[in-house]
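Example A, followed by Example B.
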Amino acid sequence: MSYEPGARVHRLENRESVGASVLAREGDHYLIAYDEGGEGWWPEAALAPAPETAG
C-alpha cells in the first residue's frame, strides 16, 4: 500500500501510541511524524492504515 503526505498511519510495533502522519516518501520509506512527538523514517512494510482511515 502506498501513502501520500498527510495520510494517517499506524506503526506496526508494540507500543501504547502508534499513530502517525506521513510527511514525505522516498522509495519505499516514509518520513512520519509520531503522535507522541518526534519523527523518523519507516519502511512501508512497517506501516498500516490508521483504523479511522482504513476503508
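Example B, a separate protein, is given below in the same form.
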Amino acid sequence: MTRSTPTPSELSVEFWSAAAKHRLVVPHCGSCGIRYFPPERLCPGCGAPGWHYVESTGTGRVVAHTVVHRALSPDFATPFVLATVEVDGEWTMLTNIVDCDPDQVAVGLPVRVRFLDCEGGALPCFAPESSAGSPPDRTGQRP
C-alpha cells in the first residue's frame, strides 16, 4: 500500500498545501506571538482567534521518541521512529524521524525537515542534520 496525506480540515488545509510544495508552515498568533502545532481555532497561549501561518526554518531537536515495531496500518514499514520534535526552538510537532537507523535517534538529536512525497501531497518528517544531503525516497529512506 501507499502512504497518503490525511484529509485536511478547515484549519489545516493551508498547512497541507504548503507541505505539498515542500514548505513547512506553522500557526502564529497575531496577539501574543507564539507559534504552536497543531492548528487550533483559538491560540492556546492567549485564546485569541487571530492567527495565521508563517514559514518555519524546519530545524529542531528530538525531545522524545519511540521505535514502533508493529504498525497500525500496512502503509508503514517497520520499524519506524515516532518522535516529538521541538522546531525553531519554539513549538513541537509529532512526526517521524527518517534517513537513519532507529538506534541512532536520541533526545537532543539535531534534525531538519524532510518531505516524504506520497499520495495526495507530502508528509513533513525529520532527518538527522548529518544526513541533510539527499532527499528520502517514498519509504522515507535515503537513496
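On Example B: Residues 133-143 have pLDDT under 50 and may be disordered.
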